[in-house]
Design a protein that fits this description.
Blueprint (H helix, E strand, L loop, with lengths): L1 H30 L23 H54 L8 H9 L3 H70 L2 H7 L5 H17 L1
Helix pairs in contact: 1-2, 2-4, 4-6
Length: 230
């Protein structure tokens, strides 16, 4: 009994500690969206505030929520291992309980008054009834204990699966929004480069021999950087 209770204490403390850390981290991540809330009601100014984040913020949040997802997966594995342990121990205790019940039933079924060797053996066995009754109660307690611990883990697993789905939805959103922003950045850079080249400014400078090919690349890079900052 002490072994099962100790195992339950260890696994419960471990899972609770991870969950508290994860919830604290989620609160920190949620604070990133605070600028997009109405101060009066606390509601977001749009349905999906993740759209309002810049590219770097989205990337940062994406990595954080991927970490959250990995943490939930780790908890699911731990909890399922615990379930497997309780299932095995529960079945083992049931087998022992059934064996004890069978012995008690056999002893109590003996017919009093028979003067036979078999009856004498049963009378001898009756001396063990107090021990068997004690064992019966202990195994019943262990079976119930394993069942209770298993049910608690089952609830924890259900909550983890809900958390996992919610996290996956956020991760998918951030992945999509990040890709969109990255493509927009590529488009903007490509368009700016095209605009600078089409102006003919670099060609005029090169033709005037004021700058060479390598220097023209540096000028282009600087122009693009200035426009990006603007």
């Amino acid at each position: 009994e002490n072994h099962v209770a100790a195992f339950n204490t260890n696994i419960t403390d471990m899972l609770d500690s991870r969950l508290k850390k994860r919830n604290y981290f989620l609160d920190v991540l949620d604070s990133e969206l605070s600028p997009f809330k109405y101060s009066s009601s606390g509601e977001y100014i749009i349905k999906d505030p993740y759209k309002l984040l810049d590219l770097e913020q989205k990337k940062k949040l994406l990595g954080s929520y991927q970490y959250i997802g990995a943490s939930v997966d780790k908890d699911l594995i731990t909890a399922k291992d615990g379930m497997e342990y309780y299932n095995k121990m529960g079945e083992l205790y049931k087998q022992h309980l059934e064996a004890v019940n069978a012995q008690i039933k056999e002893i109590e079924a003996s017919v009093p008054g028979e003067q036979s060797q078999l009856n004498a053996q049963k009378e001898e066995l009756k001396k063990y009834l107090p021990f068997l009754n004690s064992s019966q109660k202990e195994y019943e307690s262990l079976v119930n204990m394993a069942h209770t611990y298993k049910e608690n883990l089952k609830k924890f697993i259900n909550n983890c699966q809900i958390e996992k789905k919610e996290t996956e939805i956020i991760v998918k959103k951030l992945e999509d929004y990040t890709k969109i922003d990255e493509n927009l950045e590529i488009y903007k850079k490509s368009k700016k480069e095209s605009d600078v080249r089409s102006s003919g400014l670099l060609e005029k400078l090169k033709n005037s021999k004021l700058i060479n090919e390598e220097e023209s690349k540096k000028v282009l890079s600087q122009l693009l950087n200035v426009q990006t900052q603007m």
